Automatic annotation (TrEMBL):
Keywords: DNA damage, DNA recombination, DNA repair, Metal-binding, Zinc, Zinc-finger. The gene is recR. May play a role in DNA repair. It seems to be involved in an RecBC-independent recombinational process of DNA repair. It may act with RecF and RecO. This is Recombination protein RecR. It comes from Candidatus Aphodenecus pullistercoris. Coiled coil: none annotated. One of its GO terms (molecular function) is DNA binding. Signal peptide: none annotated.
Amino acid sequence: MSRIEELVKLLSRLPGIGSKSASRIAYHLIAGDEAYNKALGESICQIKERIHFCPTCGAYAEDDECEYCSDPRRDQSLLCVVEQPQDVVTIASSGSYQGLFHVLGGAIDPMEGIGPEQLSLAQLKHRVEEGSFKEVVIATNPTEEGDTTALYIRQLLKPYGLSLTRLASGLPIGGDLEYADRLTLARSIRGRVSF
C-alpha cells in the first residue's frame, strides 16, 4: 500500500469522510503548505495529552476544570444535562444558555447494552443534592433513546422539587444536537417547556 493510499484509508475512518473526500483531503495536504501539515500533525498527536474530561461536568477541558465550570459568571442555579461533551459546545455557542452543564456520556439504549448505570446519572444526582440548582434543562437528543433518558432523569430528580424542563420543539426528531443550527437551538432553549 502506498503512503497516499494509507493516508486516504486513515482519513476515511473519520466520521462523515468517505473515500472521495478522504482522497481530496490527502491530495490537498500533499499540495499544501508543509508548515501547515506539521502544525496539523502535531495538533492531532497532542490532542489526547492536552484534552481530558472535566471532573465536575464531563465536558472537554484543557485545564483542571472546563471553561464553563470555572466561569463564576455562569448562572449557578441552572443545570443543562446533555448526552455528549460536544453538545456542551453546541448549546453554549447558541448564546441563549448561561448556566452550567452535566454530560451523561450517552443515552439509555438497552439494545446496545447501555443502561442507567453506564451513564453519569449517579454523579448528576450527587450534583443536584450538593448544588443550589433551581432548574434542570434536559437537553438529550430528540430520539427514542434521548426521550427514554429524559424520562429516567425526570423520575430520578423529581423528589428534589426542581423545575425540570426539556428543550422545546424546533429540533428535528431523530437528529443530534451537534448538527442543529444556532438559530434553531437558540429558539429551542428560549422556548423550553416543563417536563
